[in-house]
Design brief:
The complex is a heterodimer of chains A (198) and B (310). Chain A is an alpha+beta fold and 198 residues long. Chain A is built from seven helices and eight strands. Chain A has helices at 21-29, 66-70, 96-100, 136-142, 154-158, 169-182, 193-196; strands at 7-11, 40-44, 53-57, 76-78, 84-86, 110-111, 116-117, 164-168. Chain A starts with 6 loop residues before the first strand and ends with a helix. In chain B, α3 runs parallel beside α10 (234-266) and α8 packs antiparallel against α10 (234-266). Chain B has a two-stranded antiparallel sheet. Chain B has 310 residues and is mostly helical. The chains are: A alpha+beta (198), B mainly alpha (310).
């Protein structure tokens, strides 16, 4: 890892076979409630020859995270390695982060007897939250803290075609460049990246 | 009967049975926010997403601070320099608000008592500490909205005729209702003056817009055919809803404070007319001169006065 590493996800649209392993593994690893999908696999232009592709999407851990900018409680914090996390004890569930997010990453489980909207839940890049690392509280609120254990985030770890890769931005783009070069393609921007990483 | 069952089933479960789409994650049925639609909406973020980001980071907190501190400050200065209007409450009194109108008014008012402070708590959530107390305020905001929703349409209908703009409202605005002078003179206004009319339109039509945008944000996930016609994505509609909700809230909060100041402080005893429904002759003659002349001319004054004597 480099000194000024920023952790990024990247999903290779040429490799993603929409197997949904990342979605299922994420939900199982973090014991997410029904209806919450921190990571989603989505196919666009379905049935249109030459244009159809699938991609896996979750929180993109934006450098200038709009969610963190609009939050009225300032419950977001961006780690030194660029992972965008939030404090569920501060969150009021107002939904502003969802409106500001280009990717629809923030989600709101409905809880309680009246099904009112609870606090926000989103991808943590398997880095937990502000609670003590690997504590039970942290697991219950945010899921596993695999980063602290030195493991690859769950979704990328299970990706059978290595379409989904995660790591510091420089390493990720090196892999991507190598793949593009091997295929004789010029540099191309993955779907949505121009919005997240401008 | 057996032949009918599939038809009944189609009607009973139409839209409820999630189709097994092989290309999707096991999506919570019908959730458009986690479907391809959400991804298709990414390039459109620069339209409303960026606008919301800009407004929320640059203006919202500042403008609301201006309203909740500036407006009461202006009224304090007005109270100290010009002072309240005092009318005699000894003479005849006329019934202006029948009891059913007062009930509707107070249901809406109770809604506002919930809505405005909790709304301010949501905007300045950090100042109020966030977490459970502000989340609870958010729930109270919903309860206030439900109360207000009950009253808003009856309120809109019951005063609609008297609230239509009239020519003398321009004159009222030119002298700002006479509130800038200590002089007691006849102000051109019918049952409601131009200021009250402005408040009425913002509170009713504006209130309905607030309810619609609020409900959209409450459910977040809904499916309407309108989206496809307008070429808008679900998330764009939510972004428009939050922007409209916030901007309209600025105007409504400012007018709500004005309404409170006028009824409680600026015109002594005027709050009484919303409690027992009666206004004094002196007050009507000056502040609602056109209405006063009308009831005298039509000979309704005795009838209306009798109702207040009981």
């Amino acid at each position: 890892m480099y000194e000024y590493a920023r952790m990024k996800f990247y999903c290779d649209e040429d490799r993603c076979i929409e197997c949904n392993a990342c979605t299922v593994a994420c939900a199982e690893a973090h014991e997410l409630p029904v209806g919450i999908h921190r990571r989603k696999v989505i196919t666009l232009n379905e049935g249109i020859e030459g244009k159809e592709f699938s991609t896996s999407i979750a929180c993109m851990h934006c450098t200038d995270a709009p969610c963190a900018q609009v939050c009225p409680v300032d419950c977001f914090y961006i780690r030194e390695d660029g992972i965008v996390l939030h404090d569920k004890d501060k969150c009021i569930g107002c939904g502003y982060c969802l409106y500001a997010c280009p990717f629809g990453a923030p989600q709101f489980p409905r809880d309680g007897a009246f099904g009112v909207r609870g606090v926000m839940d989103k991808c943590t890049m398997c880095a937990g939250g502000p609670e003590p690392t690997n504590s039970i509280e942290e697991f219950e609120l945010y899921g596993q803290n695999r980063i602290a254990e030195g493991k690859v985030p769950m979704c990328a770890a299970v990706c059978s075609t290595n379409a989904l890769i995660v790591g510091d931005a420089d390493s990720v783009s090196e892999i991507k460049r190598a793949r593009d070069a091997a295929k004789g393609k010029g540099p191309m921007t993955p779907y949505g990246w121009d919005v997240a990483y401008k | 009967m057996k032949k009918l069952l599939p038809i009944i089933g189609t009607f009973a479960f139409a839209g409820n049975v999630p189709l097994a789409e092989p290309n999707q994650a096991p999506v919570h049925h019908g959730n458009t926010l986690i479907s391809p639609q959400m991804i298709e909406a990414i390039p459109a973020w620069h339209k409303y997403g960026e606008l919301f980001l800009y407004l929320q980071t640059h203006w919202v907190k500042m403008i609301f601070l201006l309203v909740i501190i500036g407006v009461p400050a202006v009224f304090l200065v007005h109270y100290l320099i010009i002072g309240p209007k005092v009318f005699s409450h000894h003479g005849r009194k006329f019934l202006v608000f029948p009891s059913w109108q007062r009930v509707i008014h107070w249901i809406a008012a109770l809604g506002f008592v919930f809505l405005v402070p909790t709304g301010i708590m949501i905007i300045y959530a950090k100042f109020f500490g966030g977490g459970t107390p502000v989340r609870f305020a958010r729930y109270l905001h919903d309860i206030g909205a439900a109360l207000f929703a009950v009253a808003v349409i009856p309120m809109f209908l019951m005063w609609l005729k008297e609230m239509l703009p009239r020519l003398w409202d321009i004159k009222w605005f030119m002298i700002l209702g006479g509130y800038l002078s200590k002089e007691k003179k006849e102000i051109p206004a019918s049952k409601f003056n131009a200021g009250q009319k402005m408040w009425y339109w913002f509170a009713t039509l504006g209130g309905i817009v607030m309810i619609i945008t609020g409900v959209m944000m409450y459910f977040q996930d809904f499916d309407i055919a309108l989206l496809k016609n307008l070429n808008l994505h679900q998330i764009d509609l939510l972004r428009i809803a939050v922007i409209v909700h916030l901007l309209l809230a600025i105007a409504i909060t400012a007018l709500f404070f004005t309404h409170l100041y006028m009824s409680i402080f600026a015109i002594k005893g005027s709050l009484q007319s919303m409690i027992d429904g009666c206004k004094s002759e002196d007050e009507l003659k000056h502040l609602h001169s056109i209405f006063y002349k009308k009831i005298i001319k039509e000979g309704k004054d005795k009838e209306l006065a009798e109702k207040c004597e009981k």
